Every structure is written in C-alpha cells, then in structure tokens.
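Box S1 | Example of a co-folding query
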Amino acid sequence: MIQTVLGPRKPEELGKTLIHEHVLIGYPGWFMDARMPPFIRAEALDRVVDAFQRLHSYGVRTVVDPCPMDLGRDVSFLAEVAQRSGINLICTTGVYDEAQGIPFALRHFEVEAIADIFQKEIEDGIGLTGIRPGLIKIATGDGKVSDYERKMVTAAARAAKRTGLTLLSHTENCSCGHDQIDIVGAEGIAPHRLLVGHCCGRDDHPYQKSLAERGVYVGFDRFGIEIFNTDANRMKNLKELVDAGFRDSILVSHDTVNCWLGGIPGVGHPDQVKQILPNWSLTHLFERIFPQLEAMGVAAADLEHIVTENPRRYFEANAHPI
Ligand SMILES: [Zn+2]
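Box S1 (continued) | Returned holo structure for zinc ion
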C-alpha cells in the first residue's frame, strides 16, 4: 500500500500522477523579510484548492509533494487540499541539500540516528498529525556531494531499507545523479527504487540516458521553468529518451510551488514569478507540452503510459520491499 496524506491507497488506485509538485514551500528564514506578504492560511488554502481542482479536471488523481522537512513542510495543509480537491497527495520525509536546507539541525547526529528519525516519521506519522510519508526525499548540491549530503542520503537509504519506501531526489544542474545511485546502492537499494529528480535542467541526453541505463527513474519534472533550460530542449530530450527505448524510465512534472511562505529566494514577491515563468502551472503539461510532443511524433499512448503506468510501477517498488 502507498501512504497518502489521507491514508493508504493501492498502487493501481493512484491513476494519472504528477511526480513532483509543491503545495506549499517556505525556504529557511522565509519569515525574516517583512516586505513579503503575510501567510493567511484560509486564503492560501482556497487558492491552492482551486489550482488542484483544475488539475483534477484534467484527469490527474495523484500528486507527489516532495517537500523535505526543512522547507516549511506542512502536511495538515496538504491533507485539507487533498480532502477538498479529491486529489491524492503523497508527502515525504527527508532533508534538502546543504546549501538550501537547515543542516544545522541534524549535522551532529550519527547516520543511524538520522535514519531513526526518518523511520519514526514513516512508521508513527509526522508530528501529531498521524500523517505518514509515502516516499523519502534526498538532495545533493551542484557538482559535488558534500559530506553532510552523503550522510543524509546514506541515512535515507537505510530508512528506505528498513521501511520499504522508495526514494525521490533533488539534484542541481544535472549533476550527482550517479553519485546518488552509488550511495543508495551501497546500502542495498536497487536502482528501480530511486527517482533521480531534475534531470531536465540542461540539454543533456547523454546524462539522462546514462541514468536510465542504470535502471533508475529519470525526472523530467520541471516543465515550465524556463530559466535554466527551455521546454523545447526538455521535449527534444524526452523524445530522444523514448526513441532510445527508455519510455518506462521517465517521470514527468513541473515542480510548481502553489503557495509560498514569504518570498522567493532571488526573486522577491511571489507575484513576480508569473512574469518570469508564465507557463509554470500544474496543468502546463496537459495544455501545451503533451500536444506539442504528439506533434513531434511521440504517441499519445506513450504519454499516457509515462503519466500513469510509470508512477504506478515506481510506487510498486514501495509495496514490495526487497
Ligand atoms: Zn521541488
């Protein structure tokens, strides 16, 4: 069974799934910029529920929100969104990368103690909510895995081994995907239990293919974020991977943030993001990307397979721990 924020579901109940979207995020210290809008929970909920209801009208039934512990994770908020939108939401345990997370909190613990912390959330629920994570998040920085990140990824792999949960990752600038496979592999985690996230941050088919060849899932999970890379490149690379025989390795999403606590680091007021990234929304894949991919020659059946069958198979690695 897969844990959602409203309780367990069977893998075949998940349906059409987006693998990486954020209901709500707050970067460490989000409350320190007094110029930013205050967080008004009821208003924020209405806004987010609207967006998820719209997504529901496109047939999506499940969304993974891989917010790590240290990015303002609020699973009660997620539960309300799931209840009101009818979309299954899956939350995670685990921590963000060293540069953007809160390494202060866990860095002095031994790896086993950190694995215990993740395991406790998985088995007993997050805080007093009773809500249990359905995945474990790992994260590494740009170009090199720091000692802190290596420890956290190792602890996450041990928690995955003890509980049977699968792993989902954050990477920077299409780097360190292979390191992630090596670190969790050394702890006995098979590649099909790892999604290497954010592999579409650069026009880099050789990198994407090299990951798929090792048996992990490859995240094309930032459609609409056209600062680092264009959607045109992402579509080209996705088709190249399908043509190379790796349709079954691809998972898709947008990495949207539907509610910001405070401002956006490096941008400022959350409203400004609309001008910078006009297509960055939960429904972009269905409104623009899938039709364009079909026009480029990717079969509609393959796209349906990528958004429905691949997530189910990925989560089945959860249901049958090795
Ligand atoms: Zn994300």
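The mean pLDDT is 96. The first helix runs from residue 41 to 56.
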